Amino acid sequence: MTKPELQNNNYINREISWLQFNARVLQEASDENVPLIERLRFLGIFSNNLDEFFKVRYATVKRIVEAGKGGKNALGGIKAKELLEIITQIVIKQQSKSLEILNTIHQRLEDENIYIIDENQIDDAQHDFIKKYFLTKVSPALVTIILNDSVVLPNLKDSGAYLAVRMLMCNDERQFALVEIPKSFNRFVELPKDGEKSYIIMIDDLLRHCLSDIFNIFDYKSISAHMIKITRDGELDFESDLSKSFIEKISDSVKHRKIGEPVRFVYDKTIDQETLQYLMTKMGIDDTDSIIPGGRYHNRRDYMGFPSLGRNDLLYNKIEALPIKGLSLEASIFEAIKEKDYLLQAPYQTFSYVVKFLREAALDPSVKTIKITIYRLAEISHVASSLINAAINGKSVTVSIELQARFDEQANIDYAQQMEGEGINLIFGVTGLKVHSKMCVVEREEGKKLKRYGFVSTGNFNESTAKIYTDYTLFTSDQRILKDVNKIFSFFETNYKIYTYKHLITSPHNTQKEIFKLIDAEIEAVKNGELGYIRLKMNSISSYKMVDKLYEASRAGVKIQMIVRGICCLIPGVKGMSENIEVISVVDKFLEHSRVYIFGNNGDSKIYISSADWMTRNIDNRVEVSCPIYDDDIKKEIIETFNISWSDNVKARLLGESQENNYKINDKEKVRSQFATYDYYLKKLDS
Q1: Locate the Polyphosphate kinase C-terminal domain: which residues (predicted)?
Q2: Active site residue 436
Q3: Residue ranges of the binding site for ATP
Q4: pTM higher than 0.70
């Protein structure tokens, strides 16, 4: 990839940086050391990421173009229209690379006696199985759209996959149709085994094999089918109807998203031009949309669900989530955290402690109130059921639930309605702000006083993602911290009041100001001849103000180490600007999701865990919480696990000036940080 144009040579454009992050995901799919089926699943993650990118970021840039604006200041020095073209060219190259990787994986699968066959490779026994499967399971659920000039094309589903069918009729006329690939079925149909050989056919090819059954009422000479996919603008647009509740407005907006403006059109590059032009005209695809010629199959995100086929040897070994030393699932969590703070790092340690805390609160007669923020819940949520249980037991339960958690809106709406029906007090955030903080506070009657217990986390209270996302959760009875947490819930109820927080750093109130103070303290330390250093771990950094402040610290001589999984608009290692900043990105088995800020503070480290990345939205437009770590043992644990991540020389990539994703290689002993972190916690149990 050619080096992108930079604004004053100070920043990487965030969209380009994000695409480079997705290239790191693609590297995992191409890595011969990653188990084969896991490689397929990384291809699925790459594709799913790209879908969301087009729905959100590409759509945003397109809106800038359509508004007639240049957008250079907001887009890192690149004009919006130029950026759309750059994005499309990068994506075309990445899609081509992903197709090469897919073909290689298919060959490796055949070496393992796993065959993914198409409609031209079906034998007689498989034909009989497929026919029966089609007639009994697929055909009744099939949606087929017959196209003609007089009928308006129905809105195609966002990110839905369709077979574009062209029939040459016996009278030499053309008839076009669309067959929707059913989402209700697994994309991969397992065929009967032949000895040691496993066979899979994609449902797309199963439909191609059965075209004659679908279109048997048409008198055609030839028939062909090629896949297409459309991606729509994923932004939510709200009505101003005062008669509707907030839940109704969100629900209506989610439904409207289904007919949002198209932003990307992907098609099988072997499709004939007549069919392609007919469809593009019908769908209103124009030159501001990203038009991408692709391979035979789209929606490769479905590979995230590729069947295991009983082949554990082609998967990562499952880890058993570990207990936390000193904290028991069979005893009172409140009594344990009354004595000291405890830290949970998922997925290395079990998320069950979070559920156990809430279940204990739901049953404990001394617990009077429970307050919690919710951003994304699991499909089947024990967190939600525990809160409902608490309400049934007469506790005062307050849930701040974010109905605008992107692409999880409907699930949150469903849970919100269920909880509301059980008498839970629901708060739908703050006008103009997303509530992204992750926290819970419980008030328990002890003697004549109320004592608070709670937890603050870097991640969602979601049992499913806790198995694959790395996140910290601090369990505490520290009244200083929990008093501040309680103030945030007061802010939700009376958000016209600005509260003062003595311990938590909060957005949108004071994140930038307080972080700047901490950075200034490191700058001052260097000026006084002390060692000033900053160590940061986050998902993304795109706020130019935060980047500029780190540049200022670097110029002053502060040593800065950063682990950034995703977007990084900061350019490290530039003489006179950022020579004291190093940045790596770790992409591996688990998704790195925790946010940690470590400041030297003259040898007495100040450490925060946070829900906030250093992006403008997290600092100015969301409710976020950064929580101080006061326990010395937990401070030591966070520093040691940061050191493990920083030492990674297997899955760490160096983010340099052009973000080319070169692996961090050195002569030191090999450290694969996620595996080493698990071993670290395993050893702590024996210590």
Answers
A1: 332-497, 504-674
A2: yes
A3: 49, 469, 565, 593
A4: yes
